[in-house]
Amino acid sequence: MLTHFFVTGTDSRVGKTIVSRALLQAMAAQGKIVLGYKPIATGSQALADGVRNKDAVTLQQSSSISYPLAKITPFALSDEDIFTSDLPFDIFERMTEGLEFMCQEADTVVIEGCDGWRTLITPQQTYSEWIVQTKMPVVLVVGIQEGCVSQALLAAQSIIADGVTLLGWVANRINPCLAHYPETIAVIEQNIDAPLLGEIPYLPRAESREMAHFLDLSRLAAMA
Fold this sequence. Notes:
- This protein is α/β, with parallel strands linked by helices.
- It has a single domain (about 5-220), classed as 3-Layer(aba) Sandwich (Rossmann fold), CATH 3.40.50.
- Helix content is about 35%, strand content about 20%.
- It contains 8 helices and 10 strands.
- The strands form 3 sheets. It has a 6-stranded parallel β-sheet with strand order 2-7-1-8-9-10, sandwiched between helices.
- Helix 1 runs parallel beside helix 2 (about 55-60) and helix 6 runs parallel beside helix 7 (about 180-190).
- The longest helix is centred in the middle third of the chain and has 15 residues, at about 90-105.
- The chain is globular.
- It starts with a strand and ends with a helix.
- The relative contact order is 0.20.
């Protein structure tokens, strides 16, 4: 059984949180207990009742268990650039500890990353190093817009070259006016050595919608 996997994107703002929500909803519909985990999140706000991150809130609302936001996102950063923030030296160990605890609580944990595959968390250290160390399988989110074909192929090649399993990719239509949408999906599908798990159309307020029906988890199970 697929106990946990990592969701990365071709870039920032391509819909990783939306796709993570759809994956959580789809697995919950199969009767699984699921939890979302975003160990590092940028753009967080300090409020009277604590630090709040909108991505973490979406994952919390999409999970089977009402998990505390501080556990879903232990490193909620206000800065948009991770590597300019003061993260602890043992950041990977602490991220792994949080994941292991969640795996005891849920059948499957969906871990959402930050930005793209090669995101820096220090000037010399990438987020992807944690994924490689833990041998975590990956789902790639492709934001369908101008220039996305090159981004998708480069990201997929980089993930596979790092020696981790690319479970599949999800197309998220973030530009509703993009011409040649079917052709774009087809050419990416022909050139990525992993299955297309689903297509999410452009949806206003997608973070509050039901999206499980846009995904085909049988393809995910075949790769696990």
